[in-house]
Design a protein that fits this description.
A four-stranded antiparallel beta sheet has the order 3-4-5-6, covered by helices on one side. A two-stranded antiparallel sheet has the order 1-2. Helix 3 runs antiparallel to helix 4. The protein has a single domain, classed as Nuclear Transport Factor 2, Chain: A (Roll), CATH 3.10.450.50. The chain is of the alpha+beta class. The termini are far apart. It is built from four helices and six strands. The protein is globular and about 60 Å long.
Length: about 190
Amino acid sequence: MIRKQIFVFIISLLGLTASVLAQPELSPERKLAVDSLALEKVKDLSKYISMIGDKKTPFSEANRAIDRAMELFMEGSQMGVSSVNRKEIKYYPVRKYLERLMALNYQKVTISWYNIQYISDLQRQPDGKYVGVITIYQKFEGVTKEGMKYVDTTKKDITVYVERKKTQINGREIGYWDVMLGDIRVSETKRG
């Protein structure tokens, strides 16, 4: 009985290995296109975060921006939040982070991202997906009704996942590379 279970396990392991090996490699040209798409998705997220945090954005528009932002992420992704006033970094599910951002108790909020760049090239994983890391710097400015101003700059690392997917178009199966964002980790936070 145990031999049969071991045999079944080895056969299923070989099947899994074959399906991973059947996944095509990213050609250098395709990798450039995927890199560009990943950076574009990060820039889109930056725009959505800026809209959601802006107190002038109507509630319904901010909610639409949250929904659009969620489409950029892998399920279960988290966003790191830090402050110069505390050492602890808190992590929230992305939707909860965005909803908290929309509800911040400031009269005016300005969020800008800059110096967006890959720090870790895409690396193929055993499951056939590719994973990389994009670093951004986020400047957060919040002004209270009383005119008090809080400003910090945070360096964040965004995990990027790239995998081969298939879709049906006019009855034909078409393969494509999809890019999704994962966890956003805080590396450092400083004043100004």
